[in-house]
TrEMBL record:
Its EC number is 1.8.4.12. GO terms for biological process: cellular response to oxidative stress; protein repair. The gene is LOC112278376. It catalyses: L-methionyl-[protein] + [thioredoxin]-disulfide + H2O = L-methionyl-(R)-S-oxide-[protein] + [thioredoxin]-dithiol. It comes from Physcomitrium patens. This is Peptide-methionine (R)-S-oxide reductase.
Amino acid sequence: MCRPLTISLAMASMLSTVVTNTTIAKPASAARSFKAASNAASLRPSVFKLTHNPTLRFEARRGVAMASAGGAETQVQKSEEEWRAILSPEQFRILRQKGTEYPGTGEYNKNKAEGVYNCAGCGTPLYKSTTKFDSGCGWPAFFEGLPGAINETTDADGRRVEITCAACGGHLGHVFRGEGFPTPTDARHCVNSVSLKFTPANKS
Ligand SMILES: [Zn+2]
């Protein structure tokens, strides 16, 4: 009983709950919770050490900070009015209001030229033409974005994963995985042409 206990942080969290529950247990349930109480009593020092470990607390704080940094905050911050001023009505509808262009109509759906696809909102490079493939879905498809250029967020209904420009938050489309396309990633970034601005490669 007095041996030092080796327990994980996750267990410590669970055990903290046990300690709390045991502490507030009413006398009537004392017999029933006796075992839990004695366990909690012997574990309490370890829990104390874990929860008061400065390194672990630092890691926890850092985790929270990273989570908030990965949220809606973006480098390019503009008001709705500012976006309306620099985007066409169709670009605003899709990039800022998460609209979708009609399938098969997009400027880049069949584009096979070499170059880079940039965000139509802020100009950040998003996709290389070498990652574009013909998915037959009616929208430009890419099997991967440039590193760090694209954020993924699961839709509220949990059915699809939205992709946005990491720099300005502009809506690009959705990413689908595991569909069986013969690409290196088996991912399909289904992107509105309106969200993109293509820059042809310099052939010189
Ligand atoms: Zn952007």
